[in-house]
Amino acid sequence: MTLPLLKPQFTDLYINGAWTPAQSGKTFTDICPITAQPYCEVAEGDAADIDRAVKAAHDALHKGPWGTLSAAARGMLLWKLADELERRAERLINLETIDNGKPVFESKIDLHQAIGVFRYFAGWADKIEGATIPVAGPQFVYTRREPVGVVGAIIPWNFPILMCAWKLAPALACGNTLVLKPAEQTPLTALEVADAAEKAGFPPGVLNVVNGFGPTAGRALVDHPLVAKIAFTGSTEVGREIGARAAATLKRVSLELGGKSANIVFADADIEQAIRGALVGIFYGKGEVCAAGSRLIVSSKIHDQVLEGVIAKAARYAPGDPFNPKTRMGALVSETQMNRVLRYIDEGKMESAKLVTGGKRAEGFAGYFVEPTVFDEVTDDMAIAREEIFGPVLAVMRFDEEEEAAALANASPYGLAAAVYTRDIARAHRTAARLQAGTVWINCINLYDAAAPFGGYKSSGYGRDLGAAALEQYTELKTVWVGLE
Ligand code: ADP
């Protein structure tokens, strides 16, 4: 498999409007998961670089032109940033696929959505309003929504450019400045976003990008006293650590964490639609999706029919060349991730779940490709039913009564998303209300929109990305009293 002839334009850190190597001079190797070969060297930032970046962001907020820019001007800059990304679409799509292993079909969708998120929040910038409050005394009271300050954004490798947009766009619309730490597996497209922001006209220091590892660069960002808020998307384990560490400096924290999302199919569902939903739910994004529909909870009455359809159509997701626009399953992001997924598959076999399709590393590839895998006869006590695998592995379970379906779905520490397939409108809404999940899809799955809030219940985190709800995450509310006598 050959990669397009494309060399990354940016591999240094982007701090205070300038490209700079890490202070230590260190770099790390970015490995392409499609070929399992080194792709490029990237500057490895650590605490010293984070400190430089945070100070630049702090100065940009308090001393630079950014703090006094009008809200409408901020919106215009975000809109221009979206234009810049559009202009370099082909390059971004290819880089994302090289870095993450996802098919170009998906990188294209991700980029399109990321651009949509920047445009959506560009529109919000000059519509972030306070309120006037009728109090008992002779005073005029109003509220202002002010930026929180320097935001530290720590993002994962599964949707690098999209997660960049989810954090940057609302934070900038609200007038904050940022230090972004991308995931070490996928450092490249965030650097392109930094360059696009510079070309769009963002002042130096407003957006800084520091690549590096979690325990060094990530932790330094979480601990830094000048960082007012951490916006994190990643694993529950790291989210828990970030929440605890951030408490030391009382930073604001929003956490979008793991999931084990249930996809419930009732006996009266449109079966073909439910089968398509099951496949997209678990195999889109190679299953490396926090909201992946990794538990298929099917009515016993239609179980065999649904399973047959899922098995027959899983072939559509056979791993292939990610640069072929027809491919729907790319390479897992890293060898570590592939081995983790293969370990779970072995565990499923040992726990006597019934493997009905897939179940191993895909043959004929140098990179980290895994077959789309389905286990039937999974029970609630098995690791593959309880734990987040983050790979193309579906656990199929059955239910008989309506209440049982929601109870099974809720029997998970996670609560990110769920899907429900039924033609009975009352049952659909009843079930949606019962589910402990931040998003419920009815007769659809895996849909996102810049305007629709997204986030978790329970161990899937707290706070919401996207929509008007995101504005609350990136503003402080100030109450102003004016004496009238
Ligand atoms: P995954 O397990 O999916 O790789 P992680 O939660 O480990 O996800 O990583 C998500 C992001 O969090 C990455 O940018 C990673 O570098 C960062 N990270 C990992 N560990 C820490 C940590 N201890 N403190 C801060 N950030 C971290």
List the keywords.
single chain, 485 residues, alpha/beta, 7-stranded mixed beta sheet, 6-stranded mixed beta sheet, 15 helices, 22 strands, binds adenosine-5'-diphosphate
Write the layout of secondary structure elements.
Layout: E1 13-15, E2 18-20, E3 27-32, E4 37-43, H1 47-62, H2 71-87, H3 89-100, H4 104-124, E5 132-133, E6 139-147, E7 150-154, H5 160-173, E8 177-181, H6 188-200, E9 207-209, H7 214-223, E10 227-233, H8 236-246, E11 252-256, E12 262-265, H9 271-283, E13 295-299, H10 303-314, H11 335-350, E14 354-357, E15 373-376, H12 383-386, E16 393-399, H13 402-410, E17 414-415, E18 417-421, H14 425-434, E19 439-442, E20 457-458, E21 461-462, H15 469-473, E22 475-483
Parallel strand pairs: 7-8, 7-10, 8-9, 10-11, 12-13, 12-18, 13-16, 15-16, 18-19
Antiparallel strand pairs: 1-2, 3-4, 5-6, 6-22, 11-21, 14-15, 17-20
Helix pairs in contact: 1-7, 2-4, 2-6, 3-4, 4-5, 9-10
Bound molecules: adenosine-5'-diphosphate.
Molecular structure report:
With 485 residues, the protein is of the alpha/beta class. The protein has 15 helices and 22 strands. The protein has helices at 47-62, 71-87, 89-100, 104-124, 160-173, 188-200, 214-223, 236-246, 271-283, 303-314, 335-350, 383-386, 402-410, 425-434, 469-473, and strands at residues 13-15, 18-20, 27-32, 37-43, 132-133, 139-147, 150-154, 177-181, 207-209, 227-233, 252-256, 262-265, 295-299, 354-357, 373-376, 393-399, 414-415, 417-421, 439-442, 457-458, 461-462, 475-483. Strand 1 and strand 2 (18-20) form a beta hairpin. Helix 1 (47-62) runs parallel beside helix 7, helix 2 packs antiparallel against helix 4 and helix 2 crosses helix 6. The model has no long low-confidence stretch (mean pLDDT 97). The structure holds adenosine-5'-diphosphate.
